[in-house]
Write a structure and sequence with these properties.
This protein is α/β, with parallel strands linked by helices. It has five helices and five strands, in the order E-H-E-H-H-E-H-E-H-E.
Length: 139
């Protein structure tokens, strides 16, 4: 199988900020590059959708979705474990749309593997985008 880009619109969990999803989807469409778009990877995982095995088997897969740890869990739960040497994650929960697009162009930026946990009394997690983040290999 060849290289593929898989975009998740996070339609059900709505964990990805709407402006980021919309801007990234518009950029993917405007670029004219081939990509696959799915409504929600969480839902596909819950249904054990066989398409996840097809995506996991790609020579190179770029996932435009959420946290790498969550994606590893979702694919594994669906019986389609990801090979970290062939997968790149562009995390729309922790990066700006501009950073995601730069990542699609090959920019080397990184985001946390999972959502930071809040400390008691803290204002809550700060988006990694503020620290200049955007992609990470699945580990």
């Amino acid at each position: 199988m060849s290289s593929r880009v898989l975009y998740c619109h996070c339609a059900f969990a709505q964990a990805v900020p709407r402006p980021v999803k919309q801007d990234v989807l518009r950029a993917l469409t405007d670029r004219g590059d081939d990509f696959d778009a799915v409504a929600d990877l969480c839902e596909m995982s819950a249904r054990r959708d066989p398409a996840l095995k097809e995506f996991a088997a790609c020579e190179q897969l770029t996932l435009v979705a959420c946290y790498p740890r969550a994606l590893r869990w979702m694919f594994s739960a669906a019986g389609a474990p990801l090979d970290e040497s062939r997968v790149r994650v562009l995390n729309m929960r922790a990066a700006t749309a501009e950073q995601i697009v730069a990542g699609l162009d090959g920019a080397d930026v990184s985001t946390p593997d999972a959502e930071p946990t809040a400390q008691p009394g803290a204002a809550g997690p700060q988006p990694a985008a503020a620290a200049g983040a955007g992609t990470e290999l699945v580990r």
